[in-house]
Amino acid sequence: MRRLTEDVAREANGVEGNSIFELSHQLEELTLSEAAKLSAAIPKLCALVVFSPFDIALFDAWGKANGSNAFASLARPLKEVISLAGSMRTFEATDCSRYVRTSPVATLPLFHLVADSIH
Prior knowledge:
The protein has one domain (2-98). Helices cover 54% and strands 0% of the residues. The chain has five helices and no strands.
């Protein structure tokens, strides 16, 4: 994972897109591609864990560039989100406010399931 992170960080400078969504998608594809170059045995979930901090940093920078946090920007009405993000020609429009909170919450429910597969 460390090596993959280093490879993605090195290659990320070449990622281009017309919107935050395209940049995120390109960065995810880059991460998966770099993982495949390292080893076919790297699970996709492992590569996505490596991708996650890059994606968070990207959305954080986007929010700062727009003068608000990214979650508040994503929770705006869809037309505002599109205008903030730029072109979304390759992405289907969706109302992000259904999925994103505009501000942090004090607590979150956490569920942990431990199961025994022996019957």
